[in-house]
């Protein structure tokens, strides 16, 4: 097979591991920078070009689209779908997962456990919005934030009011969520491939920090998850329509709650913690499922 990996940096750990795994399985693997691609949206003959060459002979594409290029990266992925190239994750699922508000609305509709969450544009009563999620302490999140950036813990009512008003003053879109105190600065990353949790790790925040992201200095260790946590992760992935994803859970007094579903999860932390060859599992999933025309949406979403 010839496999394209959509990534802006071929030296990133995740990209490098996918290339190595693909080549180890005997495939021709090429890393493609989505921003360098340009498209011909022609009737019956859509094409993608990069550097003067026509990218028309790929069998499958693995999207590793950074949050900052979601719009254009998803457009390139849709073009691949229109060309009958099998996507590891479809464009509709990727864009759905990147929209935090839409994600939570979809998960809520399917009965997936979530923290109590509020959303508003210009609330007449900020205090009432705060009370909707149980009052302070609470967590305030930028909709566009990634890797823990734009996430604030407001420990008092006054602090919460000030932060919300500040974000709204610069016209930022935010979510307000209850603070799961019993999680104690830890979350669980479940790595899902093809409807199965293949590995899970506990991420613990650094001392004095409530965000457990590894990019923020958090640590990771292998963990055994409960049947409820496994079922929640699988249901969240299915709801988003993602074949491969990272589902971030918190252990709350009411059971597991989903914080985020990541359509381009990093491999370094989970491979290091679990000792598993996750990259090869992804390639093997593509080998089993890659078929011309199998994309459900065919670029229509």
From TrEMBL:
<feature type="binding site">
    <location>
        <position position="260"/>
    </location>
    <ligand>
        <name>Mg(2+) 1</name>
    </ligand>
</feature>
<feature type="binding site">
    <location>
        <begin position="211"/>
        <end position="213"/>
    </location>
    <ligand>
        <name>ATP</name>
    </ligand>
</feature>
<keyword id="KW-0460">Magnesium</keyword>
<dbReference type="InterPro" id="IPR013651">
    <property type="entry name" value="ATP-grasp_RimK-type"/>
</dbReference>
<keyword id="KW-0464">Manganese</keyword>
<protein>
    <recommendedName>
        <fullName>Probable alpha-L-glutamate ligase</fullName>
        <ecNumber>6.3.2.-</ecNumber>
    </recommendedName>
</protein>
<dbReference type="GO" id="GO:0005737">
    <property type="term" value="C:cytoplasm"/>
</dbReference>
<keyword id="KW-0648">Protein biosynthesis</keyword>
<dbReference type="InterPro" id="IPR013815">
    <property type="entry name" value="ATP_grasp_subdomain_1"/>
</dbReference>
<dbReference type="GO" id="GO:0046872">
    <property type="term" value="F:metal ion binding"/>
</dbReference>
<dbReference type="GO" id="GO:0005524">
    <property type="term" value="F:ATP binding"/>
</dbReference>
<dbReference type="GO" id="GO:0009432">
    <property type="term" value="P:SOS response"/>
</dbReference>
<comment type="similarity">
    <text>Belongs to the RimK family.</text>
</comment>
<feature type="binding site">
    <location>
        <begin position="178"/>
        <end position="179"/>
    </location>
    <ligand>
        <name>ATP</name>
    </ligand>
</feature>
<comment type="similarity">
    <text>In the C-terminal section; belongs to the RimK family.</text>
</comment>
<feature type="binding site">
    <location>
        <position position="141"/>
    </location>
    <ligand>
        <name>ATP</name>
    </ligand>
</feature>
<keyword id="KW-0547">Nucleotide-binding</keyword>
<feature type="binding site">
    <location>
        <position position="262"/>
    </location>
    <ligand>
        <name>Mg(2+) 2</name>
    </ligand>
</feature>
<feature type="binding site">
    <location>
        <position position="187"/>
    </location>
    <ligand>
        <name>ATP</name>
    </ligand>
</feature>
<feature type="binding site">
    <location>
        <position position="248"/>
    </location>
    <ligand>
        <name>Mg(2+) 1</name>
    </ligand>
</feature>
<dbReference type="InterPro" id="IPR004666">
    <property type="entry name" value="Rp_bS6_RimK/Lys_biosynth_LsyX"/>
</dbReference>
<dbReference type="Pfam" id="PF08443">
    <property type="entry name" value="RimK"/>
</dbReference>
<dbReference type="InterPro" id="IPR041107">
    <property type="entry name" value="Rimk_N"/>
</dbReference>
<dbReference type="GO" id="GO:0018169">
    <property type="term" value="F:ribosomal S6-glutamic acid ligase activity"/>
</dbReference>
<dbReference type="InterPro" id="IPR023533">
    <property type="entry name" value="RimK"/>
</dbReference>
<keyword id="KW-0479">Metal-binding</keyword>
<feature type="binding site">
    <location>
        <position position="262"/>
    </location>
    <ligand>
        <name>Mn(2+) 2</name>
    </ligand>
</feature>
<dbReference type="GO" id="GO:0006412">
    <property type="term" value="P:translation"/>
</dbReference>
<dbReference type="GO" id="GO:0016740">
    <property type="term" value="F:transferase activity"/>
</dbReference>
<dbReference type="Pfam" id="PF18030">
    <property type="entry name" value="Rimk_N"/>
</dbReference>
<feature type="binding site">
    <location>
        <position position="248"/>
    </location>
    <ligand>
        <name>Mn(2+) 1</name>
    </ligand>
</feature>
<keyword id="KW-0436">Ligase</keyword>
<feature type="domain" description="ATP-grasp">
    <location>
        <begin position="104"/>
        <end position="287"/>
    </location>
</feature>
<feature type="binding site">
    <location>
        <position position="260"/>
    </location>
    <ligand>
        <name>Mn(2+) 1</name>
    </ligand>
</feature>
<feature type="binding site">
    <location>
        <position position="260"/>
    </location>
    <ligand>
        <name>Mg(2+) 2</name>
    </ligand>
</feature>
<feature type="binding site">
    <location>
        <position position="260"/>
    </location>
    <ligand>
        <name>Mn(2+) 2</name>
    </ligand>
</feature>
<dbReference type="InterPro" id="IPR011761">
    <property type="entry name" value="ATP-grasp"/>
</dbReference>
<keyword id="KW-0808">Transferase</keyword>
<keyword id="KW-0067">ATP-binding</keyword>
